[in-house]
Structures are given as structure tokens and as C-alpha cells.
């Protein structure tokens, strides 16, 4: 598996019968990361066959309910399903107290440890997480309360050994990892095979930026420049531009303008107001500015094959 983004919910504050509030699952080479956890996220995971126990890290952008009200339910379900692995949650200050209070009044204890990592909110970009798959950075957003976006940057991959040469050259299994990392192959008869002879270039690494919630502010452009995939909220169409400004949200045209300025590969728009029955106007207005725009729809998956 390469890079994959699954939309679990793409509505704004109010869910509808067919659209849930914000949550996304990123899968990169079998590592799974959850961004936001609106009410009902665990139901969406069941619906779209997401294996929630594989989630290793959760990132919460801000403390408006449509971005975290589903968290306590998800944590409790993980507990009931027997989770024991530690779970890291990167979040605004205050979420730890909320979760602990919910557990306390319910006289509940989880079988697994939660490691809360409280985030800073400033005008810059902070490196907050790293594993052997990806690095994660915050993106400063412009919302009514402190809010961070997240930038995922997949780490460079190893080179790929030409499979037909493993048997032909009798390459020992224990040497394969070093060769993938760039080492030459020294055979017992003294012959040396240069790494470039026996390997293929590494596959492309991808980057993804998540920007929700925010009103238009092009100060984020340097932080997301040239990303392969950008999700930017587009709560309203141009007919409600004044409403967007008042509520610290963006229009579809705003999102597309940011994508065009940042020279991203593909734009996904979402976080729709419940007032809309369909998003044809959102898509039309965005594509007038940035042609390679798609809609975030519940259950839809974007993968490296689309980029």
C-alpha cells in the first residue's frame, strides 16, 4: 500500500442523513493516522470498513465539536475491542481534561494508555511528530478559536532491488536491507555490483496538507507550497462570502486561490455547510480558479494513483 486518504466525514457543524462531520484517515504504507474525529466517526469507520485498532496516532485540529465530539466514543470502542497498544493524540490544550472528565463521571478506565501531546498555536510551522514513515507539521490557520492544520510529509523511500537479480546473483537475504539503503553488493568471489546496477530508483514519496477550519489567509501558502494533495475547507459558495468572513470560514473560490498560489498538485474541498443539498456550485467556482479540484465526499478515497 502506498499513500491513501479516506474521507470519513466532510460536513461542517451539523451532520445530515448522508453526510457526517469532519474526520479523515491517512494510510501510508500500513501506518494509519486519524485527523479529527467528529461525532459518529466510529460509525463511519464501521460503514467503510476501517480497522480502527490499526490507528496509531490521532490529530485534532481544534476544539469545536464537529472536530472532536466523536473521540470519547471511539476511545471506548477501542477499549471494548481489546486494544492495549498506546495511542498518541496531538491536540489543543484542554482536550486531555475533557476526555479524563468523561471517563471519570462514567467510572470508566481504558485498557490502553493515551499519550496526549498538547500543541502550540502561533504564526509559524512546528514539527510535532515523526516515525519511520512520515513527518508531521502544524499549519497555522485563521479561525475563531485556536486551530491548526496538519502537513504530512512521507519520508524518502528505499531503493528497490531488481527481483530477478536476487536469485541470479545469489544475494543473501541478510544483505537485502543494506542494499535497499544504497549499499553495493560484494559477492564472495570478490566481484562488486554497484547499487545502481541491481536496484531501481525509490518510489515517489507524497505530501498532504489538511486545512480546516480557516477563513482565507494566504500566509499559509509558504507552508503548503508544492504539496501533492491539499484539503482546504470550502464551507460556502460565493453567494455567502460575507457569512464566510463573519464565521471565519472559506468559500470554494478561496480554497482554490490558496491551491493556485501554493502550486499544489490536487485540491480537495470540503467542510460543507448543511444548507447545501449538492456541491455543484462549489466545484464550479473552485475549478474556475484551480482546475484540478475534487469534492470531499463521505466514503471517498484518494490514493497515490490519483496524484
UniProtKB/TrEMBL annotation:
GO terms for molecular function, please?
A: 3'-tRNA processing endoribonuclease activity; zinc ion binding
Q: What class of enzyme is it?
A: hydrolase
- Which CDD domains does the UniProt entry name for this protein? RNaseZ_ZiPD-like_MBL-fold
What cofactors does the UniProt entry give for this protein? Zn(2+)
Query: What are the binding positions for Zn(2+) 2 in this chain?
Result: 66-67, 213, 271
Q: Which Pfam families match?
A: Anti-Pycsar_Apyc1
Leader peptide range in chain numbering: none
InterPro entries per record: RibonucZ/Hydroxyglut_hydro, RNase_Z/BN
**What subunit structure does UniProt give?**
Homodimer.
Q: What is the protein name given in its UniProt record?
A: Ribonuclease Z
| Annotated source species | Salibacter halophilus
Amino acid at each position: 500500500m502506498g499513500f491513501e486518504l479516506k474521507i470519513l466525514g466532510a460536513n461542517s457543524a451539523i451532520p445530515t442523513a448522508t453526510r457526517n462531520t469532519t474526520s479523515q484517515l491517512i494510510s501510508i504504507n500500513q501506518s494509519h493516522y486519524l485527523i479529527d474525529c467528529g461525532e459518529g466517526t466510529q460509525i463511519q469507520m464501521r460503514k467503510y470498513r476501517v480497522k480502527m485498532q490499526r490507528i496509531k496516532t490521532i490529530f485534532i485540529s481544534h476544539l469545536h465539536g464537529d472536530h472532536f465530539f466523536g473521540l470519547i466514543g471511539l476511545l471506548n470502542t477501542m477499549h471494548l475491542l481489546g486494544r492495549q497498544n498506546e495511542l498518541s493524540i496531538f491536540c489543543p490544550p484542554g482536550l486531555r481534561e475533557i476526555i479524563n472528565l468523561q471517563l471519570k463521571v462514567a467510572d470508566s478506565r481504558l485498557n490502553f494508555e493515551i499519550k496526549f501531546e498538547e500543541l502550540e498555536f502561533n504564526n509559524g510551522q512546528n514539527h510535532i511528530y515523526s516515525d519511520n514513515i512520515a513527518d508531521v507539521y502544524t499549519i497555522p490557520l485563521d479561525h475563531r478559536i485556536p486551530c491548526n492544520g496538519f502537513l504530512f510529509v512521507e519520508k524518502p523511500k528505499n531503493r528497490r532491488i531488481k527481483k530477478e537479480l536476487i536469485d541470479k546473483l545469489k544475494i543473501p537475504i541478510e544483505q537485502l536491507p543494506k542494499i535497499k539503503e544504497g549499499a553495493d553488493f560484494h559477492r564472495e568471489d570478490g566481484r562488486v555490483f554497484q547499487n545502481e546496477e541491481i536496484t531501481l530508483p525509490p518510489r515517489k514519496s507524497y505530501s498532504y496538507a489538511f486545512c480546516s477550519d480557516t477563513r482565507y489567509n494566504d500566509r499559509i501558502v509558504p507552508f503548503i507550497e508544492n504539496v501533492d494533495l491539499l484539503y482546504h475547507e470550502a464551507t460556502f459558495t460565493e453567494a455567502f462570502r460575507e457569512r464566510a468572513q463573519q464565521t471565519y470560514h472559506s468559500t470554494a473560490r478561496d480554497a482554490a486561490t490558496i491551491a493556485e498560489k501554493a502550486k499544489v498538485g490536487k485540491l480537495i474541498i470540503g467542510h460543507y455547510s448543511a444548507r447545501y443539498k449538492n456541491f455543484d456550485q462549489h466545484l464550479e467556482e473552485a475549478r474556475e480558479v484551480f482546475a484540478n479540484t475534487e469534492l470531499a465526499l463521505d466514503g471517498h478515497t484518494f490514493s497515490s494513483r490519483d496524484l
